[in-house]
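We append the chain.
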Amino acid sequence: MTEGLREKKMRVARRAMEEAAVGIAYEEGVHAVTVDRICEVAMVSRSTFFNYFPSLEHAIFGSALVYDPVLTERILSAHRDDLVIAASRIVMETVRGQGDDELLRKRFALFAREPGTTTTVSWAAGTSRAGLQDVIENWLDAHPASARLAHANHATEARMIVNFSITLGDEVMRLVGEDGGDFPFDPAVFRTVRERMRALSIPAR
C-alpha cells in the first residue's frame, strides 16, 4: 500500500522528534532531555509532541517492545538451562534488532551508558515487561521440563525470571560500559553477573 502524504508527514515528524530526543540524551545524558528542548530542535509545538508520544520516555526509548517469535524461540532454546539470561538477551536483541540506523544505534548505546535509567523507564516499562512475561510463560507451558519451581505455576516463574533478568541486564550493561564492549556481548559477562547474583542470594551461615 502506497504511503499517503499525510502518513508521510506524520512519519517524518515523529522521526524528527525521536532523533531530537535521542540526540540530546546521547550527547548530554538522559537528564538533559526535556519536551521543550525536543520541540525546539524538531521545530514542533508541545501539543504536537504529545499527539505523538504519551511521555518524554517514549520519545527517548521508543515504544513498548514487540518480541519476535523466531528470535525468542532461538534464545530460549539456546539458554534453556538459564532462562534469566535468556530473558535478558531477548530484550537486548529485540532493542538492537529493530533496525540498523543511527537513531537505533544511539538508543541502544544509552542502555550501556546509563543502564540504571534505561532499565527503569524502558526495560521495566509495563507493556514490555508484561509481554516478556507472557513469552516466557508460554514457553514454559510448551517446555514444562525447563521449569525450575516445583510449587509455583508458570506465570509466577515467568514473572520472577523477568524480575531477575532486569537486574542481570542492568549489571551486564554496567560492566560492558566500563570495559567499552560492543554488542553482541561476550557470554562470559552474563555468567559473571549470574554468579554474583547467586552468591548474594545464598544466606550467610
Q: What stands out?
A: The longest helix spans residues 154-179.
